[in-house]
Structure prediction request, 435 residues.
Amino acid sequence: MRIVVIGGGLGGLASAARLAKLGHQVVLLEAAATLGGALGAVSEGGYTWDGSATSTLLPAALRDLFRKSGRPLETELGGELEPLEVITEHRFEDRTSVKVPGGSRAAQIAAFDELGPGLGEAWARHVETYAPVWEVLRKEYVEVPWDPRDVSKDLDSLLNTRETLHKRLRRDFRDDRLGLVAGHRAVAEGHDLRNVPAWVGVSNYLEQCFGAWRVPGGMARLAELLTARLETRGVTVLTGTAARDLVVRGGRVAAVSVESGDIDVDAVVVAVDPRRLPALAPLVERTMPAIPPVVAHLGLVGELPDLPPELVLHADPQIVIRTGGSAPEGGTAWTLHGRGKLAEDILDALARHKIDVREQVVTRIDLSPRDLVEQWNGSPCGVLWQGRATIRHRLGPTTPIDGVYAAGAHAAPGAGIPFVAQSAALVAQVIGPAK
Prediction:
C-alpha cells in the first residue's frame, strides 16, 4: 500500500516508521522545514530548551516503538533513559511544599507525610483506586484499537462514568493541597477538572508504578533518531509541504491535495489536528483543542536557586518552571509555563514567589498558545475534555472515511509522549503488514 502520513511530529514519525517496517510505501508530509513538531528543540544564543515535554511516563511505549521499527532505543541513544528521582515539586500558597518521587509507593507516602501526618496514606489510597482502572484501559483501549460502537462491558462502564476528576478529588482528599497535586497534569494540559472524567487521574498511578524518565540530551534526540529511522526504512519525507485536504471518492480516500497537485494514496494517516483538513473538520466539530500554556524560554546567568526538573507554583497565575535545558558555561536554561490570569509579565509574577531572575535574563523567547498551535499544526495537549462524551467525539485510530486513520495528540488514547507514540502503534495494528 502507498500510505501518506500527514504531520512530522512524534505521532507522524512513529506512524511512518512502523508502517514502513511493515513493508508499506510511505510518504511523510510536514508543513514546516524540519521534523519533530513539539519534540523539536528551541535554540538561541547558545541556549537550548525542549519545545514541549521534558520527560515521559511509560518508557515501554518508546522502547516498543524503536524495537518494532528497527534497533532498540537504548542502542540508538548509546545509553539508558534517565529516571527522575523527583518528578515534580509542588509549592502552595501557604508556603508549604511537597516533592513527589516516582516509581515507589513507599517513597510517595513518606513525601506526603512530610506535608502533614496521615497525608501519605490518604495519597496512597487514592492512587490505589486506579489500579483496576489501568488494567481495563491498558488491555482494552491503550494497547488495542478500539471501536466506540463496540466496547466491552468493563470499558463501557469506565468511559461512561458520570464522576468527574473534580468530584473524585474532593471526595478523596480533605486537604486541598493533595487535590492540587493529583489534578495537576490535567490542569497543565489546559483542562477544567469539572469536565474531565475521573479515570483520567490514572496518570498518578502510572507515576507511582513506573516513574518518569528523561532522554539524555533532551527530547529532540527522539526526533533526530526517528528521522534517521525513516531514512533507513526508505520513507519519502517532504518537508515544507502542507496537506491542504483529502480527496475522497465514493466514501474512500483517493489522494492528498498539496500545493503542487494531488498525491494518489491507498491510505492516509492524519497526525495533525484534523480541523486543518476540510474533509475531516465536520467529523470533529463537537470537539475543541486543549489550549497550550503561555511559554517563556529563558537563558539565564549568575547564581540561581537549586530547583528540581519541574517546579509547580500553585497560585493564580499558575507557573511551572522546567530546568532541564542546556546552556553555555556560566548559564542556565529554564522554561516557564503560565496558566490563569496573566495580566503582567510572567517574570513579575514569578518574582512574587521569591524567585526573581529578571536581572539575570540574557536570552528570552516568548510563545503564546496561538504561536504554538500554528507552529505545530495542532495543540500538543490534544483534545479539550468537555465531559465524558469527548472520548467518543474525537478520531483515532480509525475514522468514518475508509482508508483514513488518525494518530498524534488529537487522536491519542491519553496525553503525553507515551500515548502519542502508542497512537501510532494502534494505527499500525489496524492497517497491518503490506500484502
In short: Residues 99-210 form one domain.
